[in-house]
Design brief:
Layout (H helix, E strand, L loop, with lengths): L1 E4 L1 H11 L1 H17 L5 E2 L3 E4 L4 E8 L3 E9 L13 E7 L5 E6 L1 H19 L6 E5 L5 H12 L3 E5 L3 H10 L7 E4 L3 H5 L4 E4 L6 E5 L9 E4 L8 E3 L1 H5 L2 E4 L2 H7 L12 E2 H5 L13 E4 L4 H18 L3 E3 L29
Parallel strand pairs: 1-7, 8-9, 8-11, 9-10, 11-13, 12-14, 13-17, 15-16, 15-17
Antiparallel strand pairs: 1-18, 2-4, 3-4, 4-5, 5-6, 6-7
Helix pairs in contact: 2-3, 2-4, 2-10, 3-4, 3-10
Length: 349
């Protein structure tokens, strides 16, 4: 049987664990899998693009488990009352090929993205960082704020969005964290002033320059989350030239990240090498660092692995017959006789 987690089950799981604890534990698990980077068979995601969005499949595996995520990115969906990003995923047993988990990943993707940002910032931002700018206050923003507040010591967040209602929503949702000071800014430039960390999580599928060179300050860490497909960026090219840039899976980031604005020779550092100690991260207190985050399948593998373990341990979700029960594994035909079409027909008297 396959464990099934729908949206309600995922919400129950998050509530049972606690949102802050969930983010912290997931960040730790993603780091552990990044350190085991070379054990995984990896590839860039398979993307089908249109003028208004993208639909992608994201596969990855190791010797024990295979995972994939189906995910979209349609920035104009909010105009139709729909989420910009929606996802579901599967975790399977490599030895048999059988799926062990079918799960919603719309909620889980937001959590794994924030957990990955947290993991990168722990490795790259200055330890004394206390103030963060959060530019783009849509569906992902609360998770980023909570992760950095609960686990990195951020005490003050300056927020900005081109849609004031999004910022109002963010402020309202973060009211449950009284020790976190939220300040509204009137521009991205104002938000970035004095920030130790700047997180950009905008949604428009366009070549944008949310952060320009005049907004940089010595020692700033940029957590660039929103530039995640061809034709979609957030950072001015000179911001990248002035910084030490870190990536998840370079072949994918070269196509989708902010570094798509350069040729193949633009220097970047693999984040996994920093995490396993084979590469230096920040080289000095005044250095500007950039995590050019596009989201990689290994992070979804970890999320699926983590929620599967937690759901089983807590009795959350349900068991579904996604694959027929193999009474005789050489006889699939008899499975067709289980349907209602083969039940005896009752004729009216």
């Amino acid at each position: 049987m396959t464990r099934f987690l729908d949206v309600q089950s995922m919400s129950d799981l998050i509530a049972d664990i606690g949102l802050s604890k969930f983010l912290g534990e997931l960040s730790h698990e993603i780091r552990a899998d990044f350190i085991r980077w070379q054990e995984f068979e990896k590839s860039a995601r398979v993307a089908n693009h249109s003028d208004i969005g993208v639909i992608e499949l994201m596969p990855v595996s190791n010797a024990r488990r295979y995972a994939f995520k189906y995910v979209n990115g349609h920035p104009k969906n909010t105009n139709r009352g729909l989420y910009t990003v929606m996802a579901f995923g599967v975790l399977a047993d490599v030895e048999t090929g059988y799926p062990v988990l079918l799960s919603e990943l719309t909620l889980a993707t937001a959590l794994r993205t924030a957990a990955t940002s947290l993991m990168a910032a722990r490795a790259l931002a200055r330890p004394e960082s206390r103030r963060m700018a959060l530019i783009g206050n849509g569906a992902q923003s609360e998770f980023q704020a909570i992760a950095f507040h609960a686990h990195l010591g951020i005490k003050e967040i300056v927020v900005y969005d081109v849609d004031p209602a999004a910022s109002e929503k963010l402020v309202r949702n973060l009211a449950a964290f009284p020790n976190l000071r939220i300040i509204r800014a009137d521009s991205a430039k104002e938000a970035a002033q004095g920030a130790d960390i700047v997180t950009t999580v905008t949604a428009d599928k366009t070549y944008a320059t949310i952060i320009t060179p005049d907004m940089l300050e010595p020692g700033m860490h940029l957590n660039a989350v929103g530039g995640d497909c061809p034709g979609k960026t957030e950072l001015h090219v000179d911001v990248l030239r002035k910084a030490r840039v870190f990536v998840e899976y370079e072949p994918q980031t070269r196509v989708e990240g902010d570094i798509q604005q350069f040729g193949p020779d633009f220097p970047v550092v693999d984040l996994w090498r920093v995490l396993n100690g084979s590469e230096v991260g920040r080289q000095g207190a005044d250095q500007v660092t950039v995590f050019d985050s596009v989201g990689f399948a290994l992070e979804d593998y970890t999320a699926l692995r983590y929620v599967h373990e937690q759901a089983l341990a807590r009795g959350i979700g349900s068991a579904i017959e996604l694959v027929p029960n193999a009474v005789d594994p050489k006889d699939l035909f008899t499975q067709t006789s289980r349907g209602r079409a083969h039940a005896p027909v009752r004729r009216a008297a």
